[in-house]
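Work through this:
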Amino acid sequence: MRYYRSDVTAVMAGSPSFWKATEYLMATTPSPNACSTTTPPPCCTLHCAPLVYADPDGDTKLAVDQPSLLFASYDNPLITTVGHQLDHLLALLIITMDGDLPSELRRAAS
């Protein structure tokens, strides 16, 4: 969920990059199915916020942690399942955007 968006290009004008910059305040939550059967730890909402940025050539890049690896650390089968579901959705997003699917997500794509 996106709570806030701000164009911070002017704030970044002093940096050597000269890139346009937008700042987002976002939060992610486990799927509604997981939320209806268990109360996830509040720290779960800290994970999976992707970083979208442009490299020096102007190409758009996506950086995100693999959800299943992060969510498995809670040692809760329901939260681990949500992590695998998010892996699948992330893989589909990358495929839909015609991106290069990392080998770590190839199994999740099927």
In short: The mean pLDDT is 76. The longest strand covers residues 2-7.
